User: Which sequence fits this backbone?
């Protein structure tokens, strides 16, 4: 049974079984008993932190999977490698940190207001042990100028905005459809669905191609799900068929369709490009090259992390009752940690001093350490911060060398610590370094108040060895927790906390008066950048009033 103190108050939360949690104040015999979903049952203590209740008494993982997702390979969980081989990665091994809440009053810098615990990135770069190896992309800074941004709540629930997204984003923008490993052999195909649109991504003798997944006879989807070893796409309705390259193979009883062959000669093609093992598609025939869309800073940033050699350790999708943007934005800032992830502060900081930058379609966060916990008054000196920075780099080097056999002795500290939570417009979040996490967010059909969230764990693997087959795709329904996918390790517990809030956010943005919300100048900068790109794509005005 879980038993943990609250990181701000020291109040003890203890699972009693059957989803019941005892909450007992520090140094007192007074207590309360709650259901994990927040309902008070008995006792003098009548208020509790809902996210701690969820963490302590909510849906849980097998004990041996309560491991940091970036620490151990999946082989540790099939019995071939004992979990004891990864000391320090199990949550129970880590010391607990409790500190009373203290407002972070911030400090003014040349770039604007930052957390009181903020360290300039240049401090870490100037003290890198391999300064000549630091890529230029790591040295670049680009915070968005200006203050908080106001956003209309209409774009989170009104169908008219969903329809605009289909026409101006999903039909016009580069988007990740799958990994190359999902279609390793000729004839393997992947069905990529976005809103009401559907595409076939297929490996042919001439490389990867993509087409609309629609029969040109009566409009039935050619394939309802992904598959392998196909030689022809034959419609299950009347048997019309197309070759893998999209060219027409056969119209059954063609004598009854005079003059139709020319019109049905080719499935409408979709642009395809690959980057670091990801397969991107863009339905717009006039789309800019993928490289231009990604931008040079993003491509250089990921250059040394071997994403093209990763294997898919976990692949999980979940239906969520909230707009895809509401869900996605919950993963674009660290501002929420103190309230949404209280248990994380027991073993780390509050991340209010994280770093943020944006470069066109790409946003980068937590590129440099955010040591201490400014909102609990736990501060560190420059010497302590640098020591943590170097220790983290050494730990990453040892771990990745052990997993891959690769010599990382020429990597800079900056590269070894490059595991930030990054995002690419419109809906892909490939985290940096060797963090493994890759999120994707999509509308669920044409309902603007439902979405699909996808999680991939992309694990490092030796470049000279065949990769394991990708993990089988697991699909979770609206009411199934992420912990029903134990292959996500401790990330599943964290993500359950993240998505706990979003249905309530969805209800709130739909009902809110006045009908707008705000995003902060710095900590929610990446969300501001998303909406800047979103407004540009949809042709919407900036609704922030003049200051």
Assistant:
């Amino acid at each position: 049974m879980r038993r943990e103190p609250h990181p701000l108050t020291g109040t003890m939360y203890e699972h009693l079984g059957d989803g019941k949690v005892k909450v007992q104040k520090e140094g007192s015999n007074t207590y309360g008993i709650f259901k994990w979903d927040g309902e008070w049952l008995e006792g003098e203590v009548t208020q509790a932190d809902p996210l701690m209740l969820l963490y302590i008494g909510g849906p849980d993982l097998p004990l041996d999977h309560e491991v940091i997702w970036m620490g151990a390979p999946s082989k540790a969980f099939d019995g071939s490698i004992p979990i004891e081989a990864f000391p320090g990665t199990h949550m129970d091994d880590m010391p607990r940190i409790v500190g009373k809440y203290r407002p972070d009053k911030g400090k003014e810098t040349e770039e604007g207001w930052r957390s009181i615990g903020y360290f300039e990135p240049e401090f870490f770069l100037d003290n890198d042990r391999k300064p000549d190896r630091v890529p230029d992309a790591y040295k670049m800074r680009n915070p968005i100028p200006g203050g908080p941004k106001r956003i209309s709540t209409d774009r989170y629930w009104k169908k008219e905005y969903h329809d605009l997204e289909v026409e101006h984003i999903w039909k016009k923008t580069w988007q990740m459809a799958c990994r190359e490993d999902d279609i390793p052999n000729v004839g393997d195909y992947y069905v990529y669905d976005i809103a009401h649109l559907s595409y076939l991504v297929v490996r042919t003798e001439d490389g990867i191609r993509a087409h609309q997944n629609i029969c040109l006879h009566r409009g039935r989807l050619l394939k309802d799900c992904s598959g392998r070893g196909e030689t022809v796409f034959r419609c299950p309705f009347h048997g019309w068929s197309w070759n893998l390259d999209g060219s027409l193979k056969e119209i059954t009883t063609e004598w009854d369709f005079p003059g139709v062959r020319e019109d049905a000669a080719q499935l409408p093609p979709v642009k395809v490009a690959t980057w670091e093992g990801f397969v991107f598609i863009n339905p717009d025939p006039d789309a800019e090259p993928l490289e231009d869309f990604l931008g040079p800073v993003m491509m250089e940033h990921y250059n040394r992390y071997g994403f093209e050699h990763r294997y898919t350790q976990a692949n999980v999708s979940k239906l969520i009752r909230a707009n895809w943007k509401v869900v996605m934005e919950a993963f674009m800032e660290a501002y929420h940690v103190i309230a949404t992830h209280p248990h994380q502060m027991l073993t780390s900081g509050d991340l209010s001093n994280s770093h943020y930058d944006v470069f066109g379609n790409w946003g980068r966060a937590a590129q440099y350490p955010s040591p201490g916990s400014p909102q609990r008054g736990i501060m560190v000196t420059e010497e302590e911060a640098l020591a943590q920075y170097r220790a983290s780099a050494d730990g990453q080097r040892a771990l990745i060398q052990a997993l891959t056999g690769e010599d990382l002795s020429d990597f800079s500290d900056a590269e070894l610590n490059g595991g930030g939570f990054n995002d690419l417009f419109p809906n892909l979040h490939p985290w940096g370094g060797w963090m493994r996490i890759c999120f994707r967010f999509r509308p669920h059909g044409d309902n603007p108040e439902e979405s699909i969230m996808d999680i991939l764990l992309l694990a490092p693997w030796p470049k000279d060895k065949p990769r394991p087959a990708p993990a089988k795709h697991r699909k979770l329904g609206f009411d199934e927790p992420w912990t029903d996918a134990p292959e996500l390790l401790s990330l599943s517990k964290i993500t359950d906390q993240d998505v706990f809030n979003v249905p309530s956010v969805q209800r709130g943005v739909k009902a809110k008066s006045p009908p707008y919300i705000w995003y902060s100048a710095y900590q929610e900068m990446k969300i501001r950048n998303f909406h800047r790109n979103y407004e540009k794509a949809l042709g919407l005005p900036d609704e922030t009033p003049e200051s």
